[in-house]
Each structure stands twice: as structure tokens, then as C-alpha cells.
Amino acid sequence: MSEPKIIGIIGGMGPAATVDLFAKLVEATGAAIDQDHLRTLIDNNPRIPNRNDAIAGRGPSPAPHLAAAARGLQQAGADFLVIACNTAHAFQSDIEAAVTIPFISMIEATADAAGDVDRVGVLAADGCRGAHLYEHAFGKRGVTTLFLDDETQAEFMKLIFRVKAGDMSDAVRRRMESLALSLYARGAKAIIAACTEVPLVLSADALAVPVINSTDALVARAIAFAKA
Amino acid sequence: MSEPKIIGIIGGMGPAATVDLFAKLVEATGAAIDQDHLRTLIDNNPRIPNRNDAIAGRGPSPAPHLAAAARGLQQAGADFLVIACNTAHAFQSDIEAAVTIPFISMIEATADAAGDVDRVGVLAADGCRGAHLYEHAFGKRGVTTLFLDDETQAEFMKLIFRVKAGDMSDAVRRRMESLALSLYARGAKAIIAACTEVPLVLSADALAVPVINSTDALVARAIAFAKA
Fold first, then answer.
1. Which of A33, B176, B200, B205 would you call most buried, defined as having the most Cβ atoms within 10 angstroms of its Cβ?
2. Complex ipTM
3. Mind telling me how many Å the CA of A22 is from chain B's nearest CA?
4. How far apart are CA A110 and CA A102, in angstroms?
5. What is the CATH number of domain A7-105+216-227?
6. Average pLDDT of the segment spanning B91-98
7. Within a 10 A sphere around the Cβ of A51, how many other Cβ atoms?
8. Cβ contact (<8 Å) for A46 and B30?
């Protein structure tokens, strides 16, 4: 087997979600000794401007910062890139234009991981929805996407920012579960945890409906790509 | 306040200990929004040769790899460096010679964190003991260090390698607690978790004797230094 590829993670959006991605990557590698693990370079840059505000036209673009992080990781030796943030995939073309190494999409990995379903409920941040990332990815696959209505979406965003502030309390977990169940009640055959903060407070076994975790989907694809 | 400094983490020794350091850094920063967190660059390089074997004269030196990681992190923008591995501090001078940015020692941070005690029990890997890192750090402070005897040290090393292989079972936890208690029985006023794998299976509240966690000590110092 050839030497595994070096993974570059553009992180910090938010930092706890980056820790979660890194932890799952180490755990899922399933190595018996240090030396069998994958080399991973991380730029955890929480100062990248808010993606949701930029997509809504209310704030500066994170694109130059994401491109700079991508270039820095390639320069440091990364063989391919991932981002620990679904919404930031709205700027994927800016990242790809900045480097000559492949970019592995969390959106595509997650849409593939959903498997054979005709309708999914997507828990995604405003910017991720505004950029139609999952609508397009599932649309290509002939899968209908359901999203929260305006009122519950506003509540969802408040929960996401509570998680970013470190609140992973039972109250937050229960509210996240009930938002997921509202999509199930409307006919979703699977719930897509399409924001990297969601799995921090919504475990796959908390609900009777399957939960597809975007972090897990990206981790599985990144490990396979690194070892290919 | 001036812009906080960028932290560079030389990691991968082992990867789970690096995840733990990163997680504690994010948690201890206590920021309300992404943008208030600290920028952190991580080179999680598990392929760095085994430190214990090198110090025992049984394997290649990790020094050139540690120096290369340090240079890469400085080049990527780190303002100071830390290592998520106590034993690797045996090569601190090689790292410092490779860069022009400060290096914050986990050994010194931990010895300071032990506070006003006259005798400590140190749970440290073979290489960390062989290089006398804690013996010297506590010696300077007038504190006596107790270590495991040869037989229990061999068992300790087996536990560490089980943790590195992902085994954080109750059996491993109970054995680690009993090794810590054997040092307490010999008169240690505090137990030093002087290997970054130890806190993964020994929580501070598991024992009646204070446990000084080297990861926590380094995190506290790194945050203070970044914000100074």
C-alpha cells in the first residue's frame, strides 16, 4: 500500500464542530498504534467571518479567508482538503480556485450516505439553505428535501448559536430532537444533520427515524480517500 | 486588547491525546461566538517515530520530525508552539533550535500547577522518565518525585498503548486508578498525570488525592499566553 494522503481540515466554523470532526476521524481510523493513524493538518480559524451573514448579504465574505486557509494547508503539505462546516461549502469554488489539490465535499458525501430514500428532512443553517446546497445535491439524486418553516428555522438558528457558545444541555438536545421530529411528521424518511453543530446535540439513536450525520459521512469519505 | 496569538500544536503523539488537548482548549476558551475563539494550527503527525524507543536507544530519533513540524507551523503563521506529548519534551531543544517563536513547556506548566506540595507521584512514560523531565522540573522547585516501580511501570506502559489503540474501557480505567493509588499509598500528596494518554482514562474526581492533569495545565498556560 502506498503512503496514505495527508488530510487538510479548514476548521473553526465552529471550533467545537472541528474538534468533533477530528475526534471522529481519529476514532474511525481504527489504528492500533500512533504510527498507523492518518496525518492531519488543521487550520482552526474561528475568525473567518460569519457564513450565514455573508450569504444573506449582511456581512463580509469569508471567501478570501477560506482561500487563504486552503493555500496555507496545501503549502504545509496537505494532499486534499475538507471543511468542517456545511454552510462554508457555498464558497467551494473559491477554495478550489485557490489550490491545486482535491477538495472532498461534505455535502456530496452526506447526500450519498442518505442512501435509498425519496424524501429527507434537512436541518441546515440559514446560509446553507440560502445557497441551496442540499436542495441541489439531493435534487440531482431525485430526492425531495423538506426544510423547517420560517418560525422553527429561526429557533433552529438560536439552538445552533447556543451550541457554538458551549451549551449542549438537555434542553437544547430535546428542542433539537423535536425539530427533527417535526420533519419526520411531514414525511421525511431520514433526517440530515446538515450542520456540523447538529450532531453535537442530536445523536443518531435519539430518534426512531434514521439520522444521517454530515460529519460522519465526511469522515468516512476522507479516510477512504486518504487510504486509496 | 491586541489580537490574540496563534497557537501551533505539534500533535499526533498520540492522536487521541491531541484531540483531547484541542477539545480542552476550545472548551476552556469559553467564547460566546466562533469569532472569539483562538486560532489554532495543528500538525497531527502520528508518523513521528516512537519517543520512548528513541530515548532508550532502540529506535530512530523523532527530533528531525519534531523540528520539521515546528518549522511548518511557524511558516503557517503560529506565534508560539506547544506539544501534546510529555515525553516529546525530551527533544525540546531541537524544536527550539528550529524556530524563532516561543515554545511553551507542558512540563513546566504542570510542575507549576501542582502548587504547594512536597512530594508528588508521577505517572509518566518510560521515555519521559528516562529523560528525567519531571524529576528535574520538580527538583528545581524542591518537590520530591515518586515513580512506579519497574514491574508496575511495565504495566503502566501496556495501559498507555491500550489507550493509544482506542481502549478506554472500565478495566483500563480501574487499573490506571490503582496505579495512581499505589503512589498515594507511598506518600504522594498529588498525582501527576504526566502522559497525555493518562487523563483519557483517569479523571481528576476518580481519586481522593488531587490529580494534576498535564493537558489541563498546558491548556491554561497556552490560553493565558495567547491572550497576553
1. B176
2. 0.93
3. 7
4. 18
5. 3.40.50.1860
6. 98
7. 28
8. no
